[in-house]
Amino acid sequence: MKQVRGSSKLELAQYREVAAFAQFGSDLDAATQALPNRGARLTEVPKQPQYSPLPIEKQTVVIYAAVNGFCDRMPLDRISKYERAIPSSIDPELLKSLLDKGGFTNERKMEPDASLKESALPYL
Prior knowledge:
Elements: H1 2-5, H2 8-22, H3 30-44, H4 56-67, H5 79-89, H6 92-101, H7 112-120
Helix pairs in contact: 2-3, 4-6, 5-7
C-alpha cells in the first residue's frame, strides 16, 4: 500500500495549499489548476460506503489508479462508480498476488495500466 500511495501525501498537501490560495479569486495557469483537480480526486478516492469497505488488494489497485492519473479527467461524482468497477477489470491473479506479496512486484507493476485505462473510458 505504501509503495502504491507514492507521493499522494505531498500532492494532497499541495492541493490544500493551492485550494486555499485559489479561494482569493486568483487566476491559475493550467499547470497550477491541475493540482486542485488531482487533489480533489485523491481526496475522493478513500471514501467508501459505511459497512462495506473494499478488501485491501482492491483498495491498492484503486489508489494506484488515482495516483497514476487514471481519474484526473473524470468528474468527481463518477469516481465512486469507477472505484467499484476497477476490481472486476483487473486480473484476479494480480489481485491475489497483491494480497500475498503486499504490493506490486517490479515485474507486475505495469500490468493493470491497460485495463485501468479501458475501464475508465465509460466514466470520462
